[in-house]
Design a protein that fits this description.
Layout: H1 25-42, E1 61-65, E2 69-75, E3 84-89, E4 92-106, E5 111-125, E6 136-140, E7 143-149
Antiparallel strand pairs: 1-2, 2-7, 3-4, 4-5, 6-7
Amino acid sequence: MPIGDLIPWRREQGAPARREEQEHPLTSFRREMNQLFDEFFGGERALAPFGEGWGAFSPQVDVTETEDEIKISAELPGLSDEDIDISLSGNMLTLSGEKKEEKEEKGESYYRTERSYGSFRRAIPLPGDVDAEQAEAVFQKGVLTVTLPKTEETKAKKVAVKTE
Protein backbone atom coordinates (compact mmCIF):
# COMPACT_ATOMS: atom_id res chain seq x y z
CA MET A 1 0.00 0.00 0.00
CA PRO A 2 1.49 3.39 -0.96
CA ILE A 3 2.16 5.72 1.95
CA GLY A 4 0.00 8.38 0.27
CA ASP A 5 -3.10 6.21 0.84
CA LEU A 6 -2.57 6.50 4.60
CA ILE A 7 -2.68 10.30 4.66
CA PRO A 8 -6.22 11.59 5.21
CA TRP A 9 -5.55 15.16 4.07
CA ARG A 10 -4.12 14.29 0.65
CA ARG A 11 -6.09 15.85 -2.17
CA GLU A 12 -6.36 14.62 -5.72
CA GLN A 13 -3.79 16.07 -8.08
CA GLY A 14 -5.12 18.82 -10.28
CA ALA A 15 -8.09 19.73 -8.07
CA PRO A 16 -8.25 23.53 -8.07
CA ALA A 17 -8.32 25.22 -4.66
CA ARG A 18 -11.15 27.71 -4.10
CA ARG A 19 -9.94 31.16 -3.29
CA GLU A 20 -11.95 34.14 -2.30
CA GLU A 21 -11.01 37.79 -2.62
CA GLN A 22 -10.75 38.28 1.15
CA GLU A 23 -9.42 34.96 2.43
CA HIS A 24 -9.29 34.44 6.18
CA PRO A 25 -5.67 34.12 7.44
CA LEU A 26 -6.34 30.70 9.03
CA THR A 27 -7.84 29.40 5.78
CA SER A 28 -4.77 30.55 3.92
CA PHE A 29 -2.51 28.93 6.53
CA ARG A 30 -4.44 25.64 6.32
CA ARG A 31 -4.22 25.63 2.52
CA GLU A 32 -0.46 26.22 2.63
CA MET A 33 0.03 23.48 5.24
CA ASN A 34 -2.03 21.05 3.12
CA GLN A 35 0.11 21.89 0.12
CA LEU A 36 3.28 21.37 2.18
CA PHE A 37 2.14 17.91 3.32
CA ASP A 38 0.98 16.99 -0.18
CA GLU A 39 4.39 17.85 -1.61
CA PHE A 40 6.25 16.11 1.20
CA PHE A 41 4.33 12.82 1.03
CA GLY A 42 3.44 12.77 -2.63
CA GLY A 43 6.00 14.81 -4.52
CA GLU A 44 9.08 13.67 -6.39
CA ARG A 45 11.14 13.60 -3.21
CA ALA A 46 8.54 11.73 -1.18
CA LEU A 47 9.63 9.33 1.51
CA ALA A 48 10.64 6.91 -1.26
CA PRO A 49 10.29 4.13 1.17
CA PHE A 50 12.42 5.97 3.67
CA GLY A 51 15.32 6.13 1.22
CA GLU A 52 17.41 9.17 0.44
CA GLY A 53 16.90 12.16 2.62
CA TRP A 54 16.40 10.03 5.73
CA GLY A 55 20.08 9.08 6.15
CA ALA A 56 19.92 5.93 4.03
CA PHE A 57 22.60 5.18 1.49
CA SER A 58 22.43 2.54 -1.21
CA PRO A 59 25.55 2.10 -3.32
CA GLN A 60 25.39 1.40 -7.05
CA VAL A 61 26.61 -2.14 -7.74
CA ASP A 62 27.73 -3.79 -11.01
CA VAL A 63 28.12 -7.57 -11.26
CA THR A 64 30.02 -9.11 -14.18
CA GLU A 65 30.75 -12.76 -14.83
CA THR A 66 33.41 -14.40 -16.97
CA GLU A 67 34.25 -18.04 -17.44
CA ASP A 68 36.69 -17.97 -14.51
CA GLU A 69 35.43 -15.35 -12.06
CA ILE A 70 32.67 -13.09 -10.80
CA LYS A 71 33.55 -9.42 -10.35
CA ILE A 72 31.49 -7.02 -8.25
CA SER A 73 32.08 -3.26 -8.30
CA ALA A 74 30.38 -0.92 -5.83
CA GLU A 75 30.53 2.88 -5.78
CA LEU A 76 31.20 4.00 -2.20
CA PRO A 77 32.14 7.70 -2.33
CA GLY A 78 33.17 9.33 0.90
CA LEU A 79 33.99 6.05 2.66
CA SER A 80 37.32 4.59 3.67
CA ASP A 81 38.32 0.93 3.68
CA GLU A 82 37.73 0.80 7.47
CA ASP A 83 34.06 1.73 6.93
CA ILE A 84 33.35 -1.29 4.70
CA ASP A 85 32.54 -4.87 5.72
CA ILE A 86 32.47 -7.73 3.19
CA SER A 87 31.17 -11.20 4.03
CA LEU A 88 30.62 -14.31 1.94
CA SER A 89 28.21 -17.00 3.06
CA GLY A 90 27.28 -19.77 0.63
CA ASN A 91 26.20 -18.14 -2.62
CA MET A 92 25.57 -14.72 -1.05
CA LEU A 93 28.00 -11.81 -0.89
CA THR A 94 27.07 -9.09 1.59
CA LEU A 95 28.49 -5.57 1.46
CA SER A 96 27.76 -3.35 4.44
CA GLY A 97 29.15 -0.26 6.03
CA GLU A 98 28.52 3.06 7.64
CA LYS A 99 29.04 6.53 6.28
CA LYS A 100 29.82 9.27 8.79
CA GLU A 101 30.48 12.87 7.94
CA GLU A 102 30.99 15.87 10.16
CA LYS A 103 31.62 19.42 9.01
CA GLU A 104 32.60 22.20 11.35
CA GLU A 105 32.87 25.82 10.39
CA LYS A 106 33.87 28.67 12.70
CA GLY A 107 33.69 32.33 11.95
CA GLU A 108 34.07 35.55 13.84
CA SER A 109 30.41 35.70 14.83
CA TYR A 110 29.16 32.17 14.17
CA TYR A 111 29.80 28.48 14.71
CA ARG A 112 28.21 25.84 12.48
CA THR A 113 28.36 22.04 12.76
CA GLU A 114 26.72 19.58 10.38
CA ARG A 115 26.60 15.83 10.94
CA SER A 116 25.39 13.17 8.57
CA TYR A 117 25.21 9.44 9.20
CA GLY A 118 23.95 6.58 7.10
CA SER A 119 24.46 2.87 6.83
CA PHE A 120 23.98 0.45 3.98
CA ARG A 121 23.71 -3.28 3.44
CA ARG A 122 23.57 -4.96 0.03
CA ALA A 123 23.18 -8.72 -0.33
CA ILE A 124 24.18 -9.96 -3.78
CA PRO A 125 23.24 -13.50 -4.80
CA LEU A 126 26.01 -15.24 -6.73
CA PRO A 127 25.23 -17.50 -9.71
CA GLY A 128 27.43 -20.36 -8.46
CA ASP A 129 30.04 -21.51 -5.97
CA VAL A 130 33.14 -19.37 -5.58
CA ASP A 131 36.51 -20.00 -3.97
CA ALA A 132 36.35 -17.83 -0.84
CA GLU A 133 40.03 -18.45 -0.03
CA GLN A 134 41.12 -16.81 -3.31
CA ALA A 135 38.70 -13.85 -3.12
CA GLU A 136 40.21 -10.36 -3.42
CA ALA A 137 38.84 -6.95 -2.56
CA VAL A 138 40.42 -3.69 -3.72
CA PHE A 139 39.18 -0.23 -2.68
CA GLN A 140 40.47 2.59 -4.85
CA LYS A 141 39.15 6.12 -5.45
CA GLY A 142 35.75 5.38 -3.91
CA VAL A 143 35.16 2.17 -5.87
CA LEU A 144 35.24 -1.26 -4.22
CA THR A 145 36.04 -4.16 -6.57
CA VAL A 146 35.56 -7.70 -5.27
CA THR A 147 36.93 -10.53 -7.45
CA LEU A 148 35.62 -14.01 -6.70
CA PRO A 149 37.23 -16.92 -8.61
CA LYS A 150 34.79 -19.70 -9.52
CA THR A 151 35.31 -23.23 -8.26
CA GLU A 152 36.07 -25.95 -10.80
CA GLU A 153 32.53 -27.34 -10.40
CA THR A 154 30.99 -23.95 -11.24
CA LYS A 155 33.10 -23.23 -14.31
CA ALA A 156 31.32 -23.90 -17.59
CA LYS A 157 32.37 -27.11 -19.21
CA LYS A 158 32.04 -27.86 -22.90
CA VAL A 159 30.05 -30.91 -23.87
CA ALA A 160 31.14 -32.74 -26.98
CA VAL A 161 28.42 -33.32 -29.54
CA LYS A 162 28.37 -36.77 -31.10
CA THR A 163 26.84 -37.59 -34.42
CA GLU A 164 25.26 -40.94 -35.19
